Amino acid sequence: MAVRVSAGSRIHIALADMGFASPRAFGGVGFMLDKIAADVELRCAPVVSLEGATDLDKPCQFELTALLETLAEAGKRPVRAIIHSHAIQHIGLGTKTALKLAVISAYHHLVELPGGRAEQQSLSGRGGASGIGIHGFFEGGVLWDAGRPAEEIDHLLPSGARPATSTPVLMLRLTFPTSWRVGLCLPKAELSHGLEEQRFFEENAPIAPGDALETMALLYHGILPAFRLENLKLLASSLASISCKGFKRLEIERCGENVVELLGDLRAKGYAASMSSMGPLVYVIFAASDTRAAAELRALCVAHNAHWLGCHSGLNCGARASRDKFA
């Protein structure tokens, strides 16, 4: 038997409390896309092996191989893992989280390993700061996580630099409106991951408590209601405001003028747009009935020397697993 798991990409709108302004640190809002982040197949084999990973960076390859070894030890069966496709790393799509959870989920299906969602999330080691990717893998939709108790957090560090001692609390899941589409633009900018991302957090967090509270207000009384009410105008104004506040503003400014200027032009035209996570991926949410939007967005990408990654729908279901027999 072979098991294949396909998972969507995640867009992270903003971290909520990066200023120790509330009883809980981190937290945030994001949503899932039907753009593939991880498409992984596992087959039982004499020894552990990983194929299709040459386009991934070395740390990710190492972590996936180590994960396969851990799974093989727990399930007493080594596997051959084949990565059929994956999203670009380090641009804001949650690629590593999706890959690790896809491997874990496929192994559990293949050898019927005991343990449910919580155990799989814990085994991934992800979710040290944000819970959007690890919840979105199983749930899909628009997600709000409430982070972790502030008294447990000494330093506000990114997920990759924090041990995930527990899963951030999922507070709410909404359906991504089927009447909306998401355009993805990738401006030229310096990518941030690993030690560079950790250094950015160390140098810029905590932010002022007042800025953190403004961010939380915009998330919970602006962006979430906009999704719930399918109100693009409210979403556009809320995303524009949150991009000028606190930690999100610092993340965008770090990426440089290509991102800043593209977002400025998008907002001037009335689009609901911002940058996912640490970027530099820019997402634009528009009405599916707007037949001119995709062409206009492509033209804006050309004008700003950005790469157009296409239009996608929100993903309102979790990762999909399928079984196949082979000779």
Describe the structure.
The chain has helices at residues 58-75, 95-111, 117-124, 132-139, 194-204, 209-229, 232-242, 246-255, 257-268, 293-303; strands spanning 2-17, 24-44, 49-51, 79-86, 142-145, 148-149, 170-174, 180-186, 272-275, 282-287, 307-312, 320-324. The chain has 327 residues and is α+β, with helices and mostly antiparallel strands. It folds into two domains: 2-173, 2-Layer Sandwich (Ribosomal Protein S5, domain 2); 176-312, Alpha-Beta Plaits (2-Layer Sandwich), CATH 3.30.70. Strands 1, 2, 3, 4, 5, 6, 7 and 12 form an eight-stranded mixed beta sheet that branches. Strands 9-10-8-11 form a four-stranded antiparallel beta sheet. Helix 6 (209-229) runs antiparallel to helix 7. It is globular and about 60 Å long. The mean pLDDT is 94.
Briefly characterize the structure.
Helices cover 39% and strands 27% of the residues. It has 327 residues and is α+β, with helices and mostly antiparallel strands. The protein folds into 2 domains: 2-173, Ribosomal Protein S5, domain 2, CATH 3.30.230.10; 176-312, GHMP kinase, C-terminal domain (Alpha-Beta Plaits), CATH 3.30.70.
What is the fold's blueprint, element by element?
Blueprint (H helix, E strand, L loop, with lengths): L1 E16 L6 E21 L4 E3 L6 H18 L3 E8 L8 H17 L5 H8 L7 H8 L2 E4 L2 E2 L20 E5 L5 E7 L7 H11 L4 H21 L2 H11 L3 H10 L1 H12 L3 E4 L6 E6 L5 H11 L3 E6 L7 E5 L3
Distance between the termini: 9 Å
CATH topology of the largest domain: Ribosomal Protein S5, domain 2
Largest sheet: number of strands, sense, barrel closure: 8 strands, mixed
Shape: globular
Secondary-structure element order, N to C: EEEHEHHHEEEEHHHHHEEHEE
Helix count from the secondary structure assignment: 10
Specify the CATH class of the largest domain: Alpha Beta
Structural class: alpha+beta
* Low-pLDDT sequence parts: none
What is the number of domains? Answer: 2
Number of strands: 12
